[in-house]
User: What shape does this take?
Amino acid sequence: MDFLFVIQQTLSATLGVNAIIFALAAIGLNMHFGYTGLLNFGQAGFLAIGAYSVAVPVISFGLSLWVAFLIGIFNSIIFALLLGVPTLRLRADYLAIVTIAFAEIVRQVARSATFNDSLGGSDGITGKFGKEFFDLNPFKGGLAIPILRFNGNDLWVVITGWILVAIITFIMWIMVNSPWGRVMRAIREDEDAVRSLGKNVYLYKMQSLIIGGAIGSIAGFVYALSRQSVQPDNYGTALTFFAYTVLILGGAARVFAPIVGAMIFWFLIVFIEQILREGVSSNLIPDWLIGVNQVGQIRFMLMGLGLMLLMIFRPQGIFGDKKELALDARA
Amino acid sequence: MQEHNSGAGFALTSAQTPGSTKPDPILIADNIVRQFGGLTAVNVNHLEIQRGSITALIGPNGAGKTTFFNLLTGYDSPNSGTWSFNGKALNGIPPHKVARLGMVRTFQLTKALYRLTVLENMLLGAKQQKGESVLLSVFPWIWRAQEEAIRVKAVSILKNFKLIDKQDDFAAALSGGQRKLLEMARALMVEPEMVMLDEPMAGVNPALKQSLLEHIKELRNEGKTVLFVEHDMDMVHEISDWVIVMAQGEIIAEGTPSTVMGNAQVIEAYLGAHHDADLSSEEA
Ligand SMILES: Nc1ncnc2c1ncn2[C@@H]1O[C@H](COP(=O)(O)OP(=O)(O)O)[C@@H](O)[C@H]1O
Ligand SMILES: [Mg+2]
Assistant: This one.
């Protein structure tokens, strides 16, 4: 078994592009679900909007990438408003239903033949729309040390991505610990009580939806840039649920939860996969038990098992407070 | 400054008919009807609440008291009717604006914010907080001084309500009675002119009840108006200046506590159809 290779692969994934994408997606969900109690099951839709918003303006309209980022944020705000206006005055479950539909509509529209010219249909968009970003890369050679390995572009995404995650997390930390954050957490507990104290709950929920959605679209920027392509089927419901997994793994309503959750999530997925692969190829795991082609599925089964164990023994997540979780059941 | 020592301090002794006028009403309601399907839950022709008084709203379960509270505070909309607070019409005004106008309510089913601490529950109540704006929230130095002033005030109210030892506990860790106290204390953080308490003593142990009563009296001393729903007639007798009786959605009598409780219609409303509602005491 090549342990060094397993470690290299695992660590690179733990600190890699995917961890950044899921951390950002989960930071957005943490705003929605963790701090405000909004059930957004369409976070993948916000990522898709972010991803298409960086690709389409550059490739189809020849705009600058930096303008495309602004367009992406703007679009996510528009979509958050579209979702929020009809649903945020209603009971919480309406938002859940509408957001599921929203994400699927975004994906289906993106992959439909009608918009083939601009959105690329089911093949999506591939092209050098990230050129302006990668031109700035001072580390074109990438990084290759025994425990960590990134190619030039990935290294640049990883460095800027984690800096971005740090900045957003810091701002979130200030906000959720401010009186504004207190109103948000209070809304999560009981909207009617908050109304009785003179707060415009609708406005606050809208702000939460917009902020979390915009952060989701930033995750979409990273997704698109890192691959230099946008594939509509990457933005399915599974993406949203993995982002929730990341959040709950870390512990909802904890600022660092999305970061740690995303790292653990990718650590586990890649570690399990690499161990299985090494085991199978070195015949430590017999062929009749697991074949090479089954590794991909089995890592998710083991991952699921691990998550079940976590929920049984540590339902509050890594950072959460078990007592606090129990209070929820009493409420 | 008005005299607030007892009901006799007001000119509230004369009329006892439902809908009687008051010398200085803070709240006036007219022809308020709320129907749920075929059921008319509230049907109030005319009601005035005297400023600076403690008014009790009594009536058997299902009389429509909570529904009436919900209508007045914007949590529910009537099929018809108009009402005004301090001369301002409240039709169609959402709950948070009603609260900002100075009419703050509590709930029959206590709404403590469980996973906020007791102190946080209190701080939330303060009005016009700069730090509650999304843009200013990221600049703590702008709101820190105000936050500290609010905290000082919250602590003093918590001391008064004997909840200061619990200030850092989650609200969920309080007993039912303490939650009622917290809800009332939190409402005071809004600095309301009128406080509407829906069954503030339900489930509160006798010792706490007495202190709740004192707090309600104190509100009157500060010139605030109190409207509260209560089943315990001893309590009603002890603190209210005026009593309004509701049954089947309508106001069937109002007057000073002693006159109302001798009223045959009131006794009938309680003991006639609703044997479960106890006229003298809830704990019995
Ligand atoms: N949302 C609702 N839908 C249908 N009926 C309701 C609703 N709210 C209250 N009611 C009915 O209206 C009547 C008055 O209820 P309520 O105001 O809670 O009475 P009280 O507070 O005096 O005990 C009851 O018959 C109750 O069942
Ligand atoms: Mg009631």
Remarks:
- Chain A is about 70% helix and 5% strand.
- Chain A has a mean pLDDT of 91.
- The interface with chain B takes residues 171, 174-175, 178-183, 185-186, 188-190, 192-201, 207, 211, 323-324, 327-328, 330-331 of chain A (CB under 8 Å).
